[in-house]
Amino acid sequence: MKRYITGFNGLRTLGVLVVILYHIYPSTIRGGFLGVVLFFVLSGYLVTDSLLRTYKKNGKINVLKFWGNRLKRIYPSLLTVFFVVTPYLLIFQRNLLSGLRSEFFSSIFSVQNWWQIQQGNSYFTNITGASPFKHIYYLSIEGQFFILWPLLLIVLLRFVKSKGKIFLITSIITLISVVLMAILFVPGADPTRVYYGTDTRLFSLMMGSSLAFIWPLDKHFRKVNKKGQQVGLIATLITVFILVLSYLFMPAESAVTYYGGMWLISFVSMILIALVAHPALRANRIFSNVVFDYIGTRSLGIYLWQLPVFTMAEEKLVNPTAWYNVLWQLLLIVGLSELSYRFIEKPAQKFDYSNTMNILHTFITGGNWKTRKKILQTSGLIVLIAILAVIVFSPASARDQEILQKKILAQQAILMKEQTQKANDKVSLPLKTIASKYHVEPLVAEKMSKLKALALGDSVMVAASTNLKEMFPQMTINAVVGEQANVGAQKLETQKEAIKKSDVLLIGLGTNGLLDFGGTNYVDKIMSMSQGKPVYWINVQAPNKPWVSVNNTLLKASAKKYSNLTIIDWNDASKNNPSWFYSDRIHPQNEGAIAYTTLVAKAMAK
User: Which segments constitute the Acyltransferase domain (predicted)?
Assistant: First the structure.
């Protein structure tokens, strides 16, 4: 008989909260993305335990029934999120509709993670605008596991039979997945391939599955004496402590994360699940309370709603991480999750789908027709708008965004490779060609070719990096997609020797967030590290970002404060030239990248 473990809701709460905190404060909760690891291990454990109990009771596993239960559990909430968010995007934030059709269908067919990989999309950085649905990769990985694992388990139970041998096989599968993650991870490159890949994330699910063979919920656990209770409590505290440390200090870009770190977190999660599952230990009580039970039972909805809310808030608010803005975002997430849980998730699980036609017939032929008509019209309109947005409005802009994404990722890869090399001190093109291409005097082109510059920027600078290197062959460019001012300042702190050897500094930060937040003015901080060298700061042109005017006003004021700071007014130069940009009006394409480089050269030539 299955026992209901209330503490599992506490574990779900822990997992979903750290994911939420990671999306709000990625620079502080650096390993919050690892909350999904806990979800994976717990899912693997509970699913496998359920399948084993079914096989023990009936001598077989009804795979179709299992798949049907999974569909009833997940898809009503998933479809609701798409059908609510899409009309909002269509009306208020059309820039986020890019690629929505493919994202929708890949999510429905549980292959969104592979679609993201194929598109070159990054989970950790936003190039063409944040997707409010990229977190659904998690459900796609689980969906693939739910489809394949029951079939493999049936084969193993029928032909291998010995649980010990099956445990060994699951352990081998786990090891293969761990090794694949280590092999496919490339230090210094974006880790999205290994983060999204089912093959490289499978080990977390399989570790949970392995636990189900040796620690089933219907196991007859022995009574635990006082000393055993103390050991169990200490073990619980240690596992929680390790998890919290990883959530705070294991960043996505660290090689440690992929060279065994994620396996370690999966193992610790597995131990914690085993401790919570033991009825005689305190771990279950620690993770059992009213708040944890509330959040845990609604964790699916909370997980699904959190990123759409955060993404839309980021696009509309000047400071989305201010406490009052965070508060209303969290309240909105809880409110949407509660509505989804009460009116979609719970009814869908109890609903008898085999009786759908009878219920529909009764609804149409009986009761108050005016009320029924209004419900049908409203529901139909919402669904129609959502479907039209998904099918009609996304493809054109998606192609443009895909071109931009691929170009920037390619340029980012080149820059990352060059960071390990010395800046090229040879002019790539004749000076006359440079002068003609960038509309500057030959003397200016010659002067720029000899200038030793250290550049720090975000994806806008990445987009123009090829042109910058033509004009400034001795420039060292440290530009990263999604770079924010606080991270840029941290990097500059490690570049003291490079600053010393440079003639000038070029800064291109402010596209992805405020330059003054959390009590720190990062313009001041960066200027304090300039060693008195001339600093040229390119201001911000990003029409969809609410913090642009705030940042540009701050930069203008800072130029009066620091005699060695010059603001390059990219915003004013480009705002009336939409042809310079891709459809996002942020990243310069060929003509815009030339204009961007010319503006920098002319500013430095004065």
Answer: 6-334
Nearest Cα neighbor of 112 from 92, 89, 140, 148 is 140
Q: Which residues pair with 538 in a beta bridge?
A: 568
State what percent of residues in the chain have pLDDT above 90: 63
Q: Which of 27-41, 276-290, 349-363 has the lowest mean pLDDT?
A: 349-363
Least confident stretch, 108-117, 467-476, 512-521: 512-521
Looking at the fold, whether 466 and 575 belong to one and the same domain comes out as yes
- Answer yes or no: do 308 and 182 share one domain: yes
pLDDT value of residue 87: 87
Residue in 487, 490, 531 with CA at minimum distance from that of residue 513: 487
Looking at the structure, tell me whether residues 347 and 405 fall in a common domain: no
Classify burial at 224, counting beta carbons within 10 Å of its beta carbon; exposed 0-12, middle 13-18, buried 19 or more.
Answer: middle
Torsion angles phi and psi, residue 514, rounded to 5: -65, 150
Q: Which of 391-398's residues contact partners 24+ apart within 8 Å by CB, and which partners?
A: 391/101, 393/90, 393/94, 393/97, 393/100, 394/97, 394/98, 394/99, 394/100, 394/101, 394/102, 395/101, 397/95, 397/97, 397/98, 397/583, 398/98, 398/99, 398/100, 398/101, 398/102
Q: Give the total number of structural domains in the chain.
A: 3
Tens digits of residue pLDDT in 402-461: 566 666 666 666 665 655 445 444 446 789 999 999 999 999 999 999 999 999 999 899
d(CA 241, CA 244): 5
Structural domain includes residue 2 = no
pLDDT for 356: 59
Q: Is the pLDDT score of 394 beyond 80?
A: no
371 and 433 share a domain? no
How far apart are the C-alpha atoms of 150 and 457, rounded to whole Å?
Answer: 48
Same domain assignment for residues 215 and 162: yes
Q: Which residues pair with 565 in a beta bridge?
A: 535
One domain for residues 338 and 374:
no
Would residue 318 count as lying in a domain?
no
Full residue range of the structural domain in which residue 362 is found: 355-393
Alpha-carbon distance 407 to 411, whole Å?
Answer: 6
